[in-house]
Amino acid sequence: MPRAKGPAFYAVSKGRVPGVYLTWDECEAQVVGYPGAKHKKFTTAAEAEAWVGLPASGSGSASGSRNVPSVTTHTAQVIKPHSKVDSKAALAPSSSSKVPSASDSAKSGKNRITAETLKDESLWDIVYSDGSCRGNGKAGSIAGIGVWWGRNDARNLAERCPGVQTNNRAELIAIVRVLETAPRNKHPLLIKTDSKYSISCFHDWLPNWIQNGFIGSKGEPVKNAPLIRYISTLIDERGLAGQKIHLQHVRGHTGEEGNEGADRLANRGALMPEEPERDWETLEEEVLKRSRGSERAALGAAAASATLEDLDLEAYAAGLLSPEELEREMMEEGL
């Protein structure tokens, strides 16, 4: 008789990014092909975090430098791709520097990107992003992206901007790379950028673009729309997992260490070999699929609490594992 499917927490103590993950697919990406990888499946978050060596996720402690993600809890809700939203509710600035409740994002289904300058950044993970383009708007321009977490931080990135080489695209893709690589946890994430264009995209223009199907005020398609939609979906995904995202503008070239560091990395990235354009629409769909998977996991946890008499026995019998499925489940368990 197959075991009832309950909540699963996949702990990775040795892998590409150690931490606790809610789906096997996420865990598998960290351990398959990694020499000496170690992972184990648990039924509670506390056990998984203890095995990895993380502090309890409910401790409320902040860490601006740790590299491992804490466990996240997803709501049983699917992210719908860029449906119409109340712009005031989705992007309203917060009235204080207090770290927001994770439930705020979960209830709305959209991550509220705050616009104000924070008075107290001590409880936020801080990262700087920057884009650079030499010869912007001219033939033969070269662009790079930079992500700066700190001096000699392993998470720092210097990469060539893929596809079309413009400054605005490089600035946006630098934010993409933050959202793709930053640990997934409940620590609020503060992204600092000197790009007024990027700030305006998400603080000012995005709600109207969504309502108008990404058609601008002059009736033309919004530039960089697939890229902006992908960023929006990444932010929504983190919001549903309980993580607050704050985009904050900083003045460029004023001696602020993080901004200067990101600028140097972006300039270095511009000198790297060309990179092909990425398929932003396919990437967006992959994020949406992950979110749907989170919904199924939440619903499965609720179903696991039902008694056998509550279940459709015929469907239950049809759910017996095949040999291939059994082998996969054993791998998930870390056996």
TrEMBL record:
Belongs to the RNase H family. It catalyses: Endonucleolytic cleavage to 5'-phosphomonoester. The keyword Chaperone does not apply. This is ribonuclease H. It holds the Pfam family RNase_H. Its EC number is 3.1.26.4. InterPro entries: Ribosomal_bL9/RNase_H1_N, RNase_H, RNase_H1_N, RNase_H1_N_sf, RNaseH-like_sf, RNaseH_domain, RNaseH_sf. The lineage of its organism: Eukaryota, Fungi, Dikarya, Basidiomycota, Agaricomycotina. Residues 88-108 have a biased composition (Low complexity). GO terms for biological process: DNA replication, removal of RNA primer. Residues 66-76 have a biased composition (Polar residues). Keywords: Endonuclease, Hydrolase, Magnesium, Metal-binding, Nuclease. GO terms for molecular function: metal ion binding; nucleic acid binding; RNA-DNA hybrid ribonuclease activity. It comes from Sparassis crispa. The keyword Magnesium applies. Residues 253-266 have a biased composition (Basic and acidic residues). Residues 121-271 form the RNase H type-1 domain. Residues 57-111, 251-280 are annotated as: Disordered. Its cofactor is Mg(2+).
